[in-house]
Amino acid sequence: MQAVRFVAPAGAFTRTVQIRFSHCDPAGIVYFPHYFNMCNGLIEDWYTEELDVNYADLILHDQHGFPFVHVETDFKIPSRMGEKLDLTLLIEKIGRSSLTLVIVGHKDGVERLRARTVTAMMSLASKRSVALPETLRRAFEAYAARTA
Amino acid sequence: MQAVRFVAPAGAFTRTVQIRFSHCDPAGIVYFPHYFNMCNGLIEDWYTEELDVNYADLILHDQHGFPFVHVETDFKIPSRMGEKLDLTLLIEKIGRSSLTLVIVGHKDGVERLRARTVTAMMSLASKRSVALPETLRRAFEAYAARTA
Amino acid sequence: MQAVRFVAPAGAFTRTVQIRFSHCDPAGIVYFPHYFNMCNGLIEDWYTEELDVNYADLILHDQHGFPFVHVETDFKIPSRMGEKLDLTLLIEKIGRSSLTLVIVGHKDGVERLRARTVTAMMSLASKRSVALPETLRRAFEAYAARTA
Amino acid sequence: MQAVRFVAPAGAFTRTVQIRFSHCDPAGIVYFPHYFNMCNGLIEDWYTEELDVNYADLILHDQHGFPFVHVETDFKIPSRMGEKLDLTLLIEKIGRSSLTLVIVGHKDGVERLRARTVTAMMSLASKRSVALPETLRRAFEAYAARTA
Fold it and tell me: Of the residues A143, B118, B127, C70, which has the fewest C-beta atoms closer than 10 A?
């Protein structure tokens, strides 16, 4: 497979994950479900650190859930214990209650994995989808604009 | 979202997973990366119990790996602690070294999730993809034929 | 280390766990936190199948929690992908709100691990420990008596 | 239960862990096996960042394993999504091939959990325990001395 270059847009939210012993399988590479944990952690940190929205409060206080309704991922290059993997979050689409993100895992400018995730905002009480609150929508739009 | 009926083809490999406390998140539903663990376990059992191919030997003895190169999943209906989820495995495509599976999670005849996974057979020594061994290819073809 | 024989008492609750690819680390053996997942699953099944107490209902309906307050484990012999590990649950002590269990992992009559766990029953509402309900206490005492 | 104060000795290795959605169970608190993952990550970082010993190389290059042979833990105060938990590593005993660590989880000067772990150094080739290499032993002794 040919290497695909990746350069994060200026201002894009990127965090580095240490690949650990606990992530790796008997073949010595990351066991793929762990990548989804890393993506979920990245999304949490993005809310809290980039959008200045407390993710824990959204769930525990506002009683909103963000279930994943769709995930698709290309795993291009495996990662190994001791490596550091950069994860960059980009917005692809802002729906009424849904948010489509693209998360790129990369190292030294080369893509290792590319995930597209769709989450839908729901009320934990009614268990129904709800429209994105206006403050959240504006924060998403501003991030999408400045990383376009 | 409208419920989608699912009836497994006769002869299809189905296993039932107990949804446990450890699978569930603060919203009380399965945290989605656990579904991929369940899918991986289903594939293991399918090799060993349905195809009569020892999965552990394929890896530990034959030194083959089966990394996931692509995964896409629709999560339609959440599952909760104490429920039993049926998982059915179907073959979509048999490539030179790759295998495309569809795994449907269902309960009481209604789809809860649908995953498509592509794995590629590789040599752990050379770290390159290798053609599917003829015995494995025949086992895949026979399963695909009898569950079409 | 010398092998320690283990014979489960008649009537003791034993379940067999398939050691999977997902349990194993780059050294090819079970990564130890997975054993605690297995123990937790065993305890769930013991409530539901042996004591005829629906574990999910205890938590979701009765709003009881069973946090672990103490765990200690000797890991004696590692387990590998493809093996089947037997787990046997025994009661060591029944307290006012706490329950001390011993869980022995064994294969072919030889101990592989031995865990002692202490859980305390609490109310999820008050977040305080509560006395074991009388029906639960009687079920524990009967199990302890018949496996002594 | 009475709160236990904890003040890390000067020079002790402490890292802060963000408690995430993925760590928490339907009762909203950390599901206990995740704490062992956190401890394992702390130990990795301690080797690499404090002792200047590349942990990944010890395993992948030198073919040493560090299986846990004993773990015991008191879980005193639960932790919740959004909290930051400090983990401090101390040495209790340096054996011929074994190392006994104490890991204290604390927040705002109060202990939340206290784990004692015993790992034994082994050769992945011979699958037998081996004496700690002299450089490693000296690094352990120096750390124990400066955090006593």
Answer: B127
Cβ within 8 Å, pair D26-C59: yes
Beta-sheet strand order (sheet of C110-120):
C13-18, C84-94, C98-107, C110-120, C68-75, D68-75, D110-120, D98-107, D84-94, D13-18
| Sign of the alpha-carbon torsion through B50, B55, B61, B63 | positive
CB contact under 8 A, D59 and C26: yes
Asked if D87 and D103 touch (Cβ cutoff 8 Å), the reply is yes
Integer angstrom CA distances of residue A5 from A84, A113, A114, D43, D107: 17, 11, 12, 34, 42
Beta bridge partners of A91: A101
Structure letter (DSSP) for residue C29: B
> Which residue in B22, B28, B33 is closest to D31 by CB distance?
B22
User: Is there a contact between A118 and A68 (Cβ–Cβ < 8 Å)?
Assistant: yes
Q: d(Cα B41, Cα B29) in Å, to the nearest integer?
A: 20
pLDDT for residue A45 is more than 90? yes
Considering only alpha carbons, which residue of chain C is nearest residue D32?
A: C68
pLDDT digits (tens, 9 = 90+) for D16-51: 999 999 999 988 899 999 999 999 999 999 999 999
pLDDT on residue B1: 59
| Rounded Cα–Cα distance for residues C116 and C100 (Å) | 7
CA B87, CA C91: separation in Å to the nearest integer? 34
Cα separations in angstroms, B57 against B60, B64, B101, C71, D102: 5, 9, 21, 34, 38
Between A49-58, B105-114, C104-113, the lowest mean confidence (pLDDT) is in: A49-58
C-alpha span between C66 and B75 (Å, rounded): 30
Answer whether D32 sits within 8 Å of C67, measured CB to CB: yes
Euclidean distance between CA atoms B103 and A147, whole angstroms: 36
Phi and psi angles of residue B102, each rounded to the nearest 5 degrees, phi first = -115, 130
Q: Do A26 and C28 touch (CB under 8 A)?
A: yes
Are C97 and C132 in contact, with CB atoms under 8 Å apart? Answer: yes
pLDDT at position B55 is 87
DSSP, collapsed to helix, strand or coil, labels residue B55 as: helix
**Quick one: DSSP state of residue C62?**
T
Reading the block at residue C56, the tokens are: 């999910």
- Tell me the pLDDT tens digit for each residue of C49-104: 999 998 888 888 888 888 999 999 999 999 999 999 999 999 999 999 999 999 99
The residue of chain C with its CA nearest to that of D79 is C67
Q: How far is C73 from chain D (nearest CA, A)?
A: 5
- In this complex, the residue of D21, D25, D81 whose CB is nearest that of residue B21 is D25
Write the single-letter amino acid at D139: A
CA B22: distance to chain centroid?
A: 20
pLDDT single digits (tens) B40-86: 999 999 999 999 998 888 888 888 888 999 999 999 999 999 999 99
Whole-angstrom distance, CA of residue B38 vs CA of residue B36? 5
Closest CA to A40 of D43, B87, D79, D81: D81
Are A20 and D40 in contact (CB < 8 Å)?
yes
